[in-house]
Specification:
Length: 286
């Protein structure tokens, strides 16, 4: 579709952002629905995000996604948040309205749908270990608690962040256990004890990255979900499979959070099948 003076621009902001596949799925969606719109990726550092949000609103952008490491920064920078963003404490979708920009979070809902697709059953009633409790990991934890997970083990390099999340899980959702794993020597055991292990750190985004957990952190019958989506099999997935776990990458989560963002921006039902094919073409060549 040709770009004209009437073309509405959408974007994903991140740092780094060159790896993102969001333009592929959103541009495919715009084309499928015949919308005069284009989606681009913009590299924005955390300290420049507040100014960038204001500038892009003034320039008439149609909407934004926000990715690592900007989700929590965006939550603090935006005065108007919907219920999902307030609950998650992070923003991954920005809607521009006549009353000003509104922050949303579609990560949690995207994870729940993707996990059920990948493993054939909902997460309710399963114990969960989450490695990485930043914007995406936090959304996964809180959405999972709302969906019926009552037992968590949590680990993050930021001790204050992970303790805050554990307290929120216990006080807001009354989960039976939200254990903070502080010693690196305890990570493998905590992961192996869980029914579902979620990798929510940036490990795996760069070529040559090693898995943050070795094969000893997994067991047969376990589910392992890597939020990283750029390869058919991430290093984390390979280690999980060595011990008999069923593993999935984050492509399904990217799809479902993106479809929800598309609907927030456009008011139209997202062509999820078209978006899925665009993503799978990029990752699997299918």
């Amino acid at each position: 579709m040709p770009i004209t003076g009437h073309t509405k621009i959408y974007a994903v902001l991140g740092h780094p952002v060159a790896h993102t596949l969001s333009p592929a799925m959103h541009n495919a969606a715009f084309a499928a629905l015949g919308l005069d719109a284009v989606y681009v990726a913009l590299d924005v550092t955390p300290e420049k995000l507040p100014g960038a949000l204001a500038a892009l609103a003034d320039l008439g952008f149609g909407g934004l996604n926000v990715t690592v490491p900007l989700k929590e920064v965006a939550c603090r920078a935006l005065p108007n948040l919907d219920e999902s963003a307030r609950l998650m404490g992070a923003v991954n979708t920005v809607q521009f309205t006549p009353a000003g920009p509104v922050g949303h979070n579609t990560d949690g809902a995207g994870f729940l749908r993707a996990a059920e697709e990948a493993f054939g059953a909902p997460v309710a009633g399963r114990s969960m270990f989450i490695l990485g409790c930043g914007g995406a990991g936090r959304a996964v934890a809180l959405a999972s608690a709302g969906a019926g997970v009552t037992k968590f083990a949590l680990a993050d390099l930021d001790a204050g962040r992970v303790r805050k999340l554990a307290m929120e899980l216990e006080t807001q959702f009354m989960v039976s256990e939200a254990r903070v794993i502080e010693a690196s020597s305890e990570l493998a055991g905590a992961a192996r004890a869980a029914d579902l292990v979620v990798q929510a750190t940036p490990a795996g985004l760069k070529p040559g990255d090693a898995s943050p957990l070795g094969a000893g952190a997994f067991r047969a019958g376990q589910w392992a979900f890597d939020l990283v989506y750029g390869a058919p099999e991430t290093p984390f997935m390979r280690e999980a499979k060595k011990s008999g776990a069923t593993a999935a990458n984050g492509l399904g989560m990217l799809l479902h959070q993106g479809a929800k963002a598309f609907e927030i921006w456009t008011g139209r039902a997202a062509p999820a099948d078209v978006m899925r094919r665009a993503l799978e073409q990029k990752v699997y060549g299918a």
